[in-house]
Each structure stands twice: as C-alpha cells, then as structure tokens.
C-alpha cells in the first residue's frame, strides 16, 4: 500500500478526529501525509482544530497504530477505501456522517449499477423469508446489488437468496472485516465475495458491540438508492435503517404484514405514518424508482 494510505489510516486511528474534521483537514492540506508533517500553528488554523487536538495529531500515536494495522492487512486480501479514492462509494461521499475510511473484502464495485437495502428483524417468519427471496429473484438481471447486514433473520435470508439467484450482494458489518458475526454466517460471507463482499468502518479485530450496530445501519442506508424493510417489530435496527434512509432522502418501502404479527408492527407503522411506501412487489418497486426499461426517467 502507498505511503499516503498509511497516513489516511493514521487519521482514522487518531483520537479526537471525526469524519467531519478529517475532511476539513484534507481540504486544507491536500493530503493525509501533509497533515502529519504540519506544525502546531498551521494545524490550529483549520476550522474545528483546537490546540489540544493539534497536539494529539503531532504526537503521531495514530501513525504508530496505522503501521501495526498495515502489517496485519498485508497478510489479508482486505482493501482500504478512503473517501478521496475513486472507488469509494459515491453514494456515501456526500453524507455528513459517512465514514472517511472503509475496509472492504471481495469483488466490490460501489459506483456501478443500482443498490437496494433489504433489512428486517432477526426473528423473521416464513412469510418474511419468502418475500425476501421474491425480492432477490425479482431483482436478478436488473443491475441491482442488494445490501444488508449479515445478521440473523431477514439479513442473512437476503444474502443467501442473492447467492441463489446470482444477485450481487454486500454485507455491512459492525465488526472488523476479519471478525464475522455471527460466526455461523462465515461460509455465506465467503461465498458473497465472488459477487459482492463485505465492508466495515471498523479496524481489524473489532468485536461485536451493541452500540456499533445502529452506526452500521447508517452505512446500509447510505449505500442504497432505496431500502426495503421486510419485517420489523415496533422497535429495532431495521427501523433505525429506515430512519437513516429517510434522512438521506432515499426511497423507503415497507412490506405490509399480518396485524396480529408483532414482527409486522414496525412495517405497518412506517406505512401508516407515511415514512415508507407500501411494498407490493418488485415490479411496483421498479416502476416507483423509474427503473423499468420503458420509464421516462431513471433514478440511478
């Protein structure tokens, strides 16, 4: 990897530097390496950088951690995507809270074709799994990549349906790219890499933690042109993804469900509150997004 990639990784590891501040620094200095070569005076000229933060940068602790991380990465086929790279997801680039650095594994191509997020409860029903499979089958040969979170329930059903129908699929993880969670989905994650793969904002070795999953959901929403919530209880990660998608001006669809089924409560509520369009089938989805061949316009 290039020297610049080392310094980009070092920014990621520097305490006190969030994505917004890193973007300000890159805009000011032009490269990650020049940030670490700057002095206290020039660093504090950047909007949002106080003396305390500047001193943390100058201590170069992040650079030391980055060097260790790069040595680990050299033994893997995991690649780094910095937000200034041409292959960094363009859909994420304009979002205020998007990660500046992603770890990716597989045959990832974020800037070609269309992306649809498919999410739902971990305690999915046969109805939810059947609808998920219908979505994957219906989107085959439509130049669509399906994004989900590799979790139990609807997520893994979506990824496996994509493998069955040869639909590209990307799993967004809340762990390091070398830590598949749950471990029982490791084989699926490997199979996905031939036609998609996995992506995460977290360093190697990062273990699952409850607080990381909601943050992961913003990436699922941000990568997607549209998000389909298949099944969701009144509260849960799928609804968080839908909320992010609405905030990012993505199209949101929800699958209506049985009124007596608690795992359809969230979907029905999204539809009732006009936070999601009702999902009635893939053809209606494609028409709503102007993705049909005879559409007068096309959202891409």
Short overview:
This protein has 300 residues and is of the alpha/beta class. Helix content is 43%, strand content 13%.
What labels would you give this structure?
300 residues, alpha/beta
What does this protein look like?
The chain is of the alpha/beta class. Helix content is 43%, strand content 13%. It has 14 helices and nine strands. It has a nine-stranded mixed β-sheet with strand order 1-2-6-5-4-3-7-8-9, sandwiched between helices. α8 links the parallel β3 and β4 (144-148). α1 crosses α6 (61-73) and α11 packs across α12. It is elongated. It starts with a helix and ends in a 12-residue tail after the last helix. The model has no long low-confidence stretch (mean pLDDT 94).
Number of helical stretches of at least 4 residues: 14
Number of strands: 9
Strand order of the largest sheet: 1-2-6-5-4-3-7-8-9
- By helix and strand content, what is the structural category? alpha/beta
Please state the average pLDDT score: 94
